Amino acid sequence: MATCYAIVLALWLLFPFAITGFIAQDAIPYAAAGRLVHSAPREIYAVSTDRVQGVSPAFRSTYCSIAGISGRDCRLDAVGYVATPLALPFAALTTHLSGRSIALVMRFLAALSLVGGMWLIWKRLAHRTPLAPLLLVTTAMLLTPMAMVPIKFAQTSPLLFLSVCVGLGSTRRGGQIAGGVLLALATAFKAIPVLLFAVAAWCRKWRFLASASAALVVLAIATFSIAPPSIFTGFPASANRLGGATATQSSIRYAVARMLGGSSVAGMSATALCVVIAAAMVWFGMRGVDDDTRWGVGYSAALVLTPIVWWHYLWVPIGAIALTLAGQRRLDDRLMAILPLVALATLPPSNPLNTSPGSSSSYQSAFLTACIVIVTVLASRTRRARALDDQGRSETLRTPSATSRQPSSVAPRNPSATNVNDSAVP
Predict the structure, then answer these.
(1) pTM of this prediction?
(2) Which of 424, 292, 46 has its CA nearest to residue 300?
């Protein structure tokens, strides 16, 4: 089964080299930002009102020049730079690359992140139950269409999935440093994981926190060396406008606000509900569990609080489910079957024939909600199992052993006495 699993993941790695004639829509903004950061940094986060992903004319012109498109295609396909300013040093590295080269590099990095996360899931779970290898192979096969989405568009969200799967439970120095640096990179590109610093502090992973903080400081210094400080004020306004305007995202806040009528009051109510949900996840899923389980629940809670959630972000709860399954003290094939069932549910929105992504927004929100429930229930199950085990150990320590109950006045055995079994020995 390990060979079958490796073949599926190898196909994911090969997919970037097989894509032709399709614009890596989410890679080109990094190249455009890298070219504008020196000459016109204000244009990176500047927006216009002519379309949902409205970008400034200068940004659109740069985008379309790199992508090699013009006219109507340029107006429809050009999307803005939505990463944090801390990712600009990486964007600046693409200045001298062609659009095709940029697309290939970012597609391969996306595939590599997904494969790395899936490999970690195999290491954690393949040996836990008799059918685990088969169930994991099935999961990988069912997730293949979903994997093609971030790879095709050259998205950076697979970094979040890899960060989830790395977890927080490593006791090795190198593992904690690598995990911290990865968290910093994920934060630089997507901002969502910044909330995970609190989880690492809760678990007292000081080396992890130190490496993550140091990496962010290095990125901040690099950013200030190529862009003015005002660049940091443009990101929140741009992200807020994008989150409020788009109709194709799947965040819980957006779904609830839409159901309540979409007014400002509805938005505030939806935000309050998300805070309550995240607090409930912390209360029921993060107390009395192992560090990796806390990490999975924490990442899922961060996604609840995020106002913008695209379909490819939902790799995060998939990794969180795998992490909370690995934390189960009593894992059986019935619980392991959750993974392929969740993977099966990813097929409808990942269908390449789906030409109306907005129509699946409600489905995606429902999928996210279901995953959050699964993660929280699995974490609560871990907490109860640990509590029962701790209670059993306490009772064992309080109960006197048979030896300690034996009276000390018992006379020692007479060495001269002949044992009945001894008499049978010739």
Answers:
(1) 0.86
(2) 292
